[in-house]
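call fold(seq) -> tokens
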Amino acid sequence: MCGIAGILNKNSEADLSALKKMLGVLNKRGPDGSGTFIHDKVALGHARLSIIDLSELANQPMKNKSGSVVITFNGEIYNYRVLKNELSKTHEFISNSDTEVLLAGYENWGIEKLLQKIDGMYAFTLVDLKSKKAFACRDIFGKKPFYYHLNSDEFIFSSDIRSFKYTNISLSLNKSCIDYYLTELSSPQPFTIYNQILQLPPASHLELDLESFDSHIKTNWSVDAISANESMNEELALSTTEELLFKAVEKRLVSDVPVCSFLSGGADSGLVTSLFAQLSKKKIDTYTIGFNYSDYSEIGFAKQLAAKYGTDHHEFILEPNIINDFDLILEHFGEPFADSSSIPSYYISKEMGKHCKVALSGDGGDEIFGGYYEYEWAYKTDCFFHKYPNPLTRETVTTLNKIFYKLGLSEKNVGLYDYYNKLLPELKMYRQMGFNPLTEKKALYQSNYNSGQSEFTLNYLSDKWNHTPGNSLTTKVFKSFTKTRLLNDYLVKVDRSSMMNSLEIRSPFLDKDLSEFAFTIPNNIKLKNGTPKYILKKLAEKHIDKDFFKRKKMGFSIPLQHWINKELKPFVDDTLSEEKIKRRGMFNYEFISSLLQDHRSGKSNNTDKIWALVVLEHWLKKNVD
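ret:
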């Protein structure tokens, strides 16, 4: 795991000075060393976090034997040893690194076959000086970041968007991106907060002709191509998921430094930890974060599992002193980012980073196996419409149920299923956290600021939904959410919060083999009886707790709702003061004031909306003013 950067020019010589400044931003991603490669119009840089092959032979940028191919690589290739054995028939290796395997694989197979064969998380740029081609590549889910700027004269890339401030690019704010952020709390990839910078889409590679500077992007893999196996039974779904999860965890133990594990107490990290402990020949290290508010703490469950498997367990309580670290956290995200779970992610990564360089996590379990309420609602709606396919019958049942529900004779309000089915695509994608793109944006903006960028957010969300194939609401939810909230929010949160602490996070649930199989499991098994994450909960009964189904889902969040009213009140009030909001000229202060009043009176919970405004104002002050 590392940081990469580069400047490729069409006409002018490579700028080593600018490259070194870009690399300076990546020192937390790669604190163990840095390197550069300069040749004519090509400048590649690398900041190293040593995980596999700690020797200097694994330093980057790395060249092949003839010097005709060079690579700067961020990530891990979990099957590199298998590929190395295959390539050893024609190549002589001088290191034990996965980077050298990528070089040999490219020479032997070409870029497209290489990307089909490798299994891992990665973002890299490979330059073939002989053929005058460059290839920028990103893993299937987009776990590793790849920011870039491309025009007819230059291609500039980095693992960190802050690097571009040290180039000759004139940066301007992307207002449409800000609007999306206010709804979904993050940036909408492939776009970024700056008009001039994009992110390479996941599961794709960009090919650049270094002479003409013609380029194109090609997709290597898509979740859309996977269909459910409707003949699969529950026994096969459970046994294969367990087998593939064991293998996914085992793959991610390949390391020349110690590996530890996040442990929240839920099914996802609990399963990863329990399988890790069963695979390990020695006691493993586990880490848990908690809070003084019991509703937000799973320390008790984590402690039980740690005791069951005899882990060397570490836990600590997060106090609301985040003001001291707010600037640091916000800075390393590079863009406005208001998912407040980034705060505990940062603190636990900071603690773990003191003791290890690699950690396993349960990220991806909710998205791949259906852990959020939207999956449950979509599935129950599908079941209702399947049971009553005739519109007239369905309307009659709904009307009768409404009467029974109001009289207290029914616990189920089936009218909600009809309501969910009729929701516009953009509202099926909306998480009910940030500002509603249809009903709240008009009141939020100053009339002279909003020039139609809200349409971008609506179109972005509906486009993801409409271009995701699926014969049911549930299938479309599963697949479309990997392209939005997983990519734009959760993976960004994990990468930035861990790498600012020089900690590599590996996510077994996002394993290619496991995720591909998960998308073949029929929805009636994945969400049996409307139970979110049914498959993982059944496995949790076996590996974690026989009474696991009785547990309430908590999620990885903080008591920010309480903090805004108490400990963080002075900070929030100052950041969103009338003077600052009106000087900014973007938002309607009266509307923001009413959000705060309603939140503090208990009339409504506006935590995420308030936090999004706080983070944005703070980011603008640091990066624009």
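The mean pLDDT is 93.
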